[in-house]
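Supplementary Methods S3. Input chains for the assembly prediction are listed below.
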Amino acid sequence: MADKIPNTNDNLIIAGRSFTSRLLIGTGKYNSFKETRSAIDASQSEIVTVAIRRINLGQNPDDPSLLEFLPSEEFTYLPNTAGCYSSDDAIRTLRLARELLDGHNLVKLEVLGDPETLYPNVVETINAAKILIKEGFDVMVYTSDDPIIAKQLEDIGCCAIMPLASLIGSGMGILNPWNLEIIIDKANVPIIVDAGVGTASDATIAMELGCDGVLMNTAIALADNPILMASAMKKAVESGREAFIAGRMDKKLYTASPSSPIKGLIK
Amino acid sequence: MKIYINGNIKEFIGKKITPAELIIKLNLNGKRFAIERNGEIIPKENFGGIDFNDGDKIEIIGAVGGG
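Predicted structure tokens for the full assembly:
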């Protein structure tokens, strides 16, 4: 009888919370809440990011809201600080988010440095992280792929470090796998690639490198068929994770090795 | 009195208004939001117990799609 595929019982643990899926999904840029929900269902993600903005006061009171499409019984919200360029703005946004979400304290901190590249301002990010952690937030933090900064953010007490693969919304994929490997090697908290994934193979590469998860938005929302891409991303993250745990063969440069026996060749 | 709501001036009759009264006037009953006055969060349990006054800057925020 053949051996079964081992059950790895491989949950992602973030700040004591346990998740089956290692794919985290953003909720921006979709055509409708219905499409957002359908894509998230196809991705089987459990953690969804949301942005915090002024409420639209002119709206019809019967109009549904994003959170009604994504009820808190089914999803873990990850309120973000997208659009914040200072630690003060980011802290203010997340305090409001905690009030909005009835004390929910798991958040995504990002402090941007430049509206053109949306590259993180790591100095402001570190300042904000220190204060938020003191105030009892569980901080998942978006940062550059600088291993020293990643370690500093961990030492401050961030519960997950989320380095960029490439610029937010660029779809350029993983531009510096070497830095990600250093970050992963040194880390004692989950490393989640956030930003830059363009297609399924990018997500697989991130997971094969040993990332604990992948966070993406645009790669799914701006695909021609977001729901199919969401399904592809689910499989991509899962196969990358399985390949990482399985342990890849060593690379043999310039040396071939036949897969079929040399002995017993028909002559 | 005039107060600023999400950056826009709104005029109300009287000298004060509670957050709870404001929510009804803005048709936000049953919606999910958080309120800040002059940079300070007003906890939900205080919505009936405080007054907004002339010149207050009120922010009413909610969750929207984002990555």
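Residues 171 and 198 of chain A are 4 Å apart (CA to CA). The mean pLDDT of chain A is 94.
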